[in-house]
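REQUEST FORM: STRUCTURE PREDICTION
Request ID: SP-0412
Submitted by: Lab K.M.
Chain count: 1
Length (residues): 285
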Amino acid sequence: FSTSHAKGEQDAAGSHVKQKVSQAVLRRTATITSARSMHDFLVQHFSQPAPSSFSARTKSVQLKRRIFHFVPSSGEESVVRNRAGRKFTELKGIRKLHCVKTTPQQGKVFVRHRSCYCISCIVNDEENCTNKAWLDEWKPVELTREGDVATTRQATEAPILDHDTASYIADLASKGSTVAIAAEDDPVYGFYLLQVTSDGVEELDSNVTDDYQCHYYRGDRVLKGHFYIKENIHDMTFTIDEKWKVFVHAATVCHICGDLPVRKRGRKSIYKLPLKENEEIIASM
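STATUS: Completed
RESULT:
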């Protein structure tokens, strides 16, 4: 029976299994000498969960039965472990390297002798690293496989990306999408909603200033659009401020919303943010 060193929910289940088996052996009510006999014992005595002594848990945990699978060490149903080409040779001098970065290309990594955890490096903006003077340049290294060469389908079909490329949730946005941006120190808005008017994320080719007098610089990756303005705080309704054009950094987008329900009130369009969508936005921040 396998667990994950107390890192997941399955470990709680694992502790119950081991306790059940240990108690049976100590009380001499079962003889367990192999994985097969352990499996048979559990199927017979532990498939049906006992009722909880806590009434609250009985209602919240809908556990009907436990299912156990036996995987033989050899034969047709066993795990095939001798698969050539799945191991790589050790990177020479790895003990002297303090920074290794993987890439989408199989077998290729970038290494350097020092690591940096400044804000720019954490958000993959290494060009603005505050510790550049003390860092060496990235060096590409090709790792070799042990045994036969095997290339996975993912490696052959996936494009090779620049190792400095950062992907954001905003990259999934398109024209007409509604995205959420976390708001800081705003007493009215916990987050901002933006209706996207650009064809997805754009990279600025010159410095610009939007209608809110916020400055953006050449090379910044941004979304263009209009902010939603709260119409009613209590029922989470909004209107769109189409008079003011705004830019937002792609990295600040935390959630992409579905289509918001809309109704007409005279000439105005009133958008309603569903409660579930509101909860998903808060959870993403």
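NOTES: The mean pLDDT is 80.
Reviewed by: T.R.
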